[in-house]
Amino acid sequence: MLIGIDIAFWKRLHYDNLFTLAFELLLAGGWLFVFYNVWPHIKDAWINWRQEFFAAENPSVLLEIRLPQKNKRPIEAIEQLFAEIHALRRDQTWWETLWKGQYILKVAFEIVSIEGQIRFF
Q: Whole-prediction pTM value?
């Protein structure tokens, strides 16, 4: 089996005019190269646009956790709380990501000292 390269295509191109040459190469299959390089940017712009709608529907919330002064529960109770917060994360389907614009909501836990009192946010 002999594989050859047809150079007649390259001889027919108009090398004297750059715009004509670019147009001929684009029609001859160069659009695949352009599409391959532009598609990730189009996809990112679409996802960012859809995520703006999702973010508008899900505003940020600040919660303060207040513990009773005489807490008799063991330390495993707070470990269970962190385990439940960690379980909130899940993978989205392609429909949720590309059409609904859903993303993993961020959860932060902070320990703050305000006027000598320890608070949990």
A: 0.62
**Which tokens belong to 43?**
């996809």
Domain boundaries, the chain: 1-42, 60-121
Separation CA 88–CA 107 (nearest Å): 9
Check if the beta carbon of residue 121 is closer than 8 Å to that of residue 110: yes
Of 58, 62, 41, the closest CA to residue 108 belongs to 62
Return the closest-CA partner of residue 63 out of 119, 7, 6, 103: 119
User: Would you state the torsion angle of the CA atoms of residues 52, 42, 105, 91, taken in this order, to the nearest 10 degrees?
Assistant: 140
What would the mean pLDDT of 89-102 be, rounded to a whole number?
A: 84
In angstroms and rounded to an integer, the radius of gyration of the C-alpha atoms of the chain is 29
User: Helix (H, G, I), strand (E, B), or coil: what is residue 51?
Assistant: helix
Between CA 115 and CA 107 the distance in angstroms is 25
- In whole angstroms, give the CA distance from residue 121 to residue 112: 7
In one letter, which amino acid is 73? Answer: R
Q: Mean pLDDT of all residues in the chain?
A: 83
Question: At 21, is the secondary structure helix, strand, or coil?
Answer: helix
